[in-house]
Amino acid sequence: MAHCISRPFLQNSLRASNLARTRWTVTLSPYRRMSSSSKYEYLITSKPEPNVLLIQLNRPKALNALCSPLFKELNQAMKDADGDGSIGAMVLTGSEKAFAAGADIKEMKDKQFADVYKNRFLEDWAEMARISKPIIAAVSGYALGGGCELALMCDIILASPTAKFGQPEINLGVIPGGGGSQRLTRIIGKSRAMEMVLTGRTITAEEADKWGMISRVVGQGEGQVVKDAVAMAKEIADKSQIAVHAGKEVVNEAYETTMAEGLKYERRIFHGLFATNDQKEGMAAFAEKRKANFTHT
Length: 297
Known about the structure:
By secondary structure, the chain is an alpha/beta fold. The protein contains twelve helices and ten strands. The chain has two domains: 7-237, Alpha-Beta Complex (2-enoyl-CoA Hydratase, Chain A, domain 1); 241-287, Orthogonal Bundle (Lyase 2-enoyl-coa Hydratase, Chain  A, domain 2), CATH 1.10.12. Helices cover 44% and strands 14% of the residues. The chain is globular, with a radius of gyration of 20 Å. One of its GO terms (biological process) is fatty acid beta-oxidation.
């Protein structure tokens, strides 16, 4: 929910923000064929591949701190992409310095209980769970507090060797409020989740990989994690969109039900795919030793 970075670090980061932003722009320049930055204040969107949407968080001076207007834009961008038949998968990233350093402390520090409770503060973060298309997080630098929670809300996490994950809210007198305690416990287990939540310790990309928190650590190089994430998104987007949606749905169902109920649910969804044109095309293409031409019907 929140980040906790020392004031000297933030000051140094702000001094370097213009340079960092310039470097990142150069890195992402091949991916800006369809930039829609004028549509959003806190996001930059593009289509690096015809069927892939790239969303870059764009608050460099605040290390991509997650204020409410940013999350409103993010929810809208993802909702629009979810309804766009030309897009098969999404990539979410930040900058080389920070995926997202946390929720915006300046926005939260003066809030009162009645305000956050009545207005359901952070509840809109859960809207990402209703997106049916795959979302891949490409994480470089700091993914702390809300930034860590945002990455965990994605379906796949690829991490740069520079990535650092943490839930340091305890240092601010609070706890994770965007799902960190619940998702971490399910992914890395009670003991490790307790360690992260109760000590606020930041872990490296290598530790996150070892703990099963991420899919993998990519190779060295500025922008490499975005390139790998886009390549993975394209690979997914080239499949049958119906089958991809079904695959995401049944994996997510595993977190919500028993093994017996999950197996029954998976089997019913599997059976249902035999009513699609893509199932007929995919199996015919395999039998005929040719590439499938999916129509997403």
